[in-house]
Amino acid sequence: MEGVQVRIISNEKGKGLFALGSFKEGDTIFEEKPFICCQFSWNAEYGYSACDNCLKPLETAEENVRRLSEKSNIILPYPECCETKSELITECELCGVKYCTHECKIQALQRFHKSLCLHSRSKNHLHPLVQLNDTWKQLHYPPETATVMLLARMVALINQSNDKDNIRSIFSQFCHRTTNETQEIAHNLLGEKFVGQIDILRKTMQSVLNAEFVQDWFTPEGFKSLLALVGTNGQGIGTSAFSRWVKNVTNLELPDDQRMQVDKLIDKIYDDMEEVVGTFLNNEGSGLYTLQSTINHSCLPNAVVEFPYSNSTLVLKAIRDIEPEEEVCIAYLDECLLERSRHSRQKALSSQYLFICQCARCLMQIEDPDVTSEEDDDDDHEDMSD
To answer: Cα separation of 183 and 114, whole Å?
Structure first.
């Protein structure tokens, strides 16, 4: 990729991404489509309508806010600011899965959907793939960070590929450790309370998918490695028809009185939606990105991942000036967690990403007490009561 280079840093830290030239704050460092992605299981269950290939919203902005606010009389002005093209939406003729365009439908069919199609439009709860998804949902309630259906797509991608060794090789480049050997940290998807369910997931997947080319993935240890792979490398993806409408309306040149009216409307709609669904506003899923997965974490990041096109295409942007030869780092934690104590940040990073952070901020705060706020105390109490 022009402008950046992946380098091996050390045996313990692995790879890192480094700038070959300078980037100014706000510059796009690169764009990347996922190697594979999937909507979260509960997100789809609750009616968040997204393209089954790229996660682009299938609702109009108006349909989106009506559903999330439970107010069917909301009318959005400036309909030209809605990016959803309802006339382009298509579906699989056999199972009814929907896509934003014919191109997405063909791409999904060629890459993975042929192996995963239910061949039925009815809610066939006896189908093994449906049972697999239901088993996962009982194991992993919202807020979601992964889905077993991403694993199913990985297997299907290999089965449908003409170059199976190459696809397997790409997957092998992602971190797939179940524990961190140095600190003996186990991935949080592999806790003792999940042992029975994990084996059920493994056997169900093995029974419904052709495992001929990935037999090692379905040994008990191999399957744990797969779960750790998607848990450690999965990049969260969020898309929203309404947020795109808001962005486009914000960019309009409007008279002051109209600007005031539309801003007031937007604030009211967000308040109404928050009353019903809280922070669960987006179509949400996760994807595996070969270049993005090489970027290390810092609690003082110099870059951020964005999804400006409201689909699964990732954009990495500089959030401060980056000098040549400087490592490009992002925050694996959300903004809320990032603002909390070193203790809370370390706990979250070790359980999901299997490392103890040694960034400049964490080293600067190394003498801080383990718990620094009432909120952190509450979290620790909840962890002990599990």
So the answer is: 42
What is the distance between the alpha carbons of residues 132 and 122, in angstroms, rounded to a whole number? 17
Q: Which residue has the tokens 């309630």?
A: 141
Burial class (CB in 10 A: 0-12, 13-18, 19+), 79: exposed
| Locus of tokens 């239901």 | 134
Burial class (CB in 10 A: 0-12, 13-18, 19+), 358: exposed
Query: What pLDDT does residue 383 have?
Result: 43
Q: Where are the alpha helices (DSSP H) in 113-173?
A: 114-116, 128-139, 148-160, 164-172
Helix (H) or strand (E) holding 17: strand 14-19
At 51, list the tokens. 């393209």
Nearest to 232 by CA among 320, 349, 105: 349
CB-based contact 316:28 (threshold 8 Å): yes
Count of positions (residues) in the chain: 386
How confident is the model over 314-332, as a mean pLDDT? 97
What span, in angstroms and rounded, lies between the C-alpha atoms of 328 and 320? 11
Tokens at residue 113, please?
């959907």
Residue 50 is encoded by which pair of tokens?
Answer: 């997204």
Is the bond into 301 cis (omega within 30 degrees of 0)? no
Show Cβ contacts of residue 271 under 8 Å, excluding neighbours closer than 6 positions.
none
**Residue 113 per-residue DSSP state:** I
Average pLDDT over residues 280-288: 97
What's the pLDDT tens digit per position in 225-276? 898 899 889 999 999 999 999 999 999 999 999 999 999 999 999 999 999 9
pLDDT tens figures, 14-41: 899 999 999 999 999 999 999 999 999 9
What is the pLDDT, as a whole number, of residue 81? 98
Side chain identity at 295, as an amino acid letter? I
Secondary-structure breakdown of the chain: helix, strand, coil percentages, each rounded to the nearest 5? 45, 15, 40
What are φ and ψ of residue 14, in 5° steps? 80, -135
Rounded distance, CA 277 to CA 42, Å? 13
What gap in Å lies between CA 151 and CA 207, rounded to an integer? 14
Distance CA 80, CA 284 (A): 25
